[in-house]
Design a protein that fits this description.
The C terminus is likely disordered. The chain is mainly beta and 232 residues long. It contains three helices and 15 strands. The relative contact order is 0.26. It has one domain: Jelly Rolls. A hairpin with a 4-residue loop joins strand 3 and strand 4. The protein is 14% helix and 43% strand. The N and C termini lie close together (7 Å). Strands 1, 3, 4, 6, 11, 12, 13 and 15 form an eight-stranded antiparallel beta sheet that branches.
Length: 232
């Protein structure tokens, strides 16, 4: 058994205190109708079997949280997606400043948008779109190496850091995109389907500056980490 030095103890404790002070978190498990989520008009979002379901088979069906919140800048956004439909698409949105109207008028919003093919639809479709108050375009059209699998919970992780974004599907990096224009510097998050029905669950957003305005409860995690460090 190796002991830990007093210096290492001090550094670890200090870093934990700083993290605890400045890290914030938002979590939603959809046990009941979620507060603060705003579906786009005409969509069909509801809670079913402790998950958030969108059942309208139409284009660009969104639900948003913390739209245009300037405290939401750099963060990690995680969610699980379980497609009910066997094809078409589902995805996530970030730095949402304007929700817009969705559907064919999705460019009326102001956000970034990662849309992923279900069961490999569209040749492992995996595109990043950008909407900017009436203008919209695909900014990364490279296919992914992973797909959303119907009837399974797929893990999405999005790392938002300045003008650079990293996107993971089931633990594997799919995209790393840098917006050199740094068009959108803050904003909330969203969930999306496109001509598909899908379930969403276990949303988590962790960042600096105040996502959700709630301090992360790190007590259990810190205790476990400290125990591992002590006995390494």
């Amino acid at each position: 058994m190796r002991s830990i030095s007093m210096t290492a103890m001090f550094v670890f404790t200090t870093s934990i205190c700083l993290f605890y002070q400045f890290a914030y978190s938002y979590e939603e498990t959809f046990e009941k109708t979620p507060k603060g989520w705003n579906p786009v008009k005409g969509t069909k979002w509801n809670v079913k079997d402790a998950a958030y379901r969108q059942s309208n088979i139409a284009r660009n069906q969104y639900s948003f949280y913390a739209v245009n919140d300037r405290d939401w800048q750099d963060y990690v956004f995680e969610v699980q997606i379980n497609p009910v439909s066997s094809n078409n698409y589902a995805g996530v949105l970030w730095r949402v400043q304007v929700a817009g109207d969705g559907g064919a008028a999705w460019t009326s919003g102001k956000f970034y948008y990662w849309l992923i093919g279900i069961n490999g639809h569209g040749g492992n479709y995996s595109k990043i779109w950008e909407a900017n108050d009436g203008a919209g375009a695909a900014v990364d059209e490279n296919p992914g190496t992973e797909i959303l699998k119907k009837g399974e919970w797929n893990d999405i992780r999005l790392e938002v850091n300045g003008e650079t974004f990293k996107m993971y599907l089931n633990g594997k990096l799919q995209k790393e995109y840098t917006d050199k224009d740094n068009l959108l510097q803050w904003g909330g998050v969203g969930l999306a389907t496109y001509d598909a029905e899908s379930l969403f669950d276990n949303v988590k957003v962790v960042g600096k500056g105040g996502p959700g305005g709630l301090a992360v409860n790190l007590q259990d995690e810190l205790t476990a980490k400290w125990g591992r460090l002590k006995y390494q």
